[in-house]
Amino acid sequence: MNSTERLAGRMPAPTEPPPAAWRGRRFDEDRLHLLVRDPRRVFAAWEISRATADGAAARCARANAPVRYALRIERAEKADANVTETLRAELPDALGGEGWYVELPRGGGMARALIGLELPQGFEALLASRWMPVPPDGPCAETGEWSVDEAAAEWLARDAERNRGQSVPRLPTSASRYLASPSARGR
């Protein structure tokens, strides 16, 4: 609809509002994302497709167990370090739920989320998020010189001079650098 149609009073029939961003079965695809908010808190957001939910119900029926979904947060200090379970929480409304904030016991390292079933033989994962870096609780422990490329070193030197109150010539703009390049001169 354009503005002229709106002013003329030709309004389309009202439609059903779209589903919420995190809920809604908009795509009916399995998805689980872990978003890091700060060193001590993450947000797990998911959607479980109808096919996965039906398969999970069938697994539970074969195990003669009720369908009980759980969210599990795993941590590792580094990408190839030992993985430990940090938290496991039952999800009473995993199919209709949209996401949870989860408190972490400490910052740093890597974390990922898993959604799975609580079966008599233990937790069985259905969905897994990617590993996400978690910032440390405090400042970085690294000290010393940082390695920077030539352009960054020039910028840092100019910034230091400017902070000392010295007159600093302006850096060339990206447009002037492009116009001075051999490819631009050949046109």
Describe, in plain words, how this protein is organized in 3D:
- It contains 5 helices and 8 strands; from the N terminus they run H-E-E-H-E-E-E-E-E-E-H-H-H.
- Strands 3, 4, 6, 7 and 8 form a 5-stranded antiparallel beta sheet that branches. Strands 1-2-5 form a 3-stranded antiparallel beta sheet, with no helix packed on it.
- The protein has helices at 3-7, 50-62, 150-163, 174-180, 182-185; strands at residues 31-38, 41-47, 69-76, 84-91, 99-103, 110-119, 122-128, 132-133.
- It is elongated.
- It has 187 residues and is of the alpha+beta class.
- Helices cover 23% and strands 29% of the residues.
- The mean pLDDT is 81.
Q: Radius of gyration, rounded?
A: 27 Å
Helix and strand content put the structural class at alpha+beta
H and E order:
HEEHEEEEEEHHH
Strand runs, count: 8
Largest sheet: 5 strands, antiparallel
Which stretches of 5+ consecutive residues score pLDDT under 50? none
- Report the sheet-strand fraction: 25-35%
Overall morphology: elongated
Instruction: Specify the oligomeric state.
Output: single chain
Strand and helix layout:
Blueprint lengths: L2 H5 L23 E8 L2 E7 L2 H13 L6 E8 L7 E8 L7 E5 L6 E10 L2 E7 L3 E2 L16 H14 L10 H7 L1 H4 L2
Antiparallel strand pairs: 1-2, 2-5, 3-4, 3-6, 6-7, 6-8
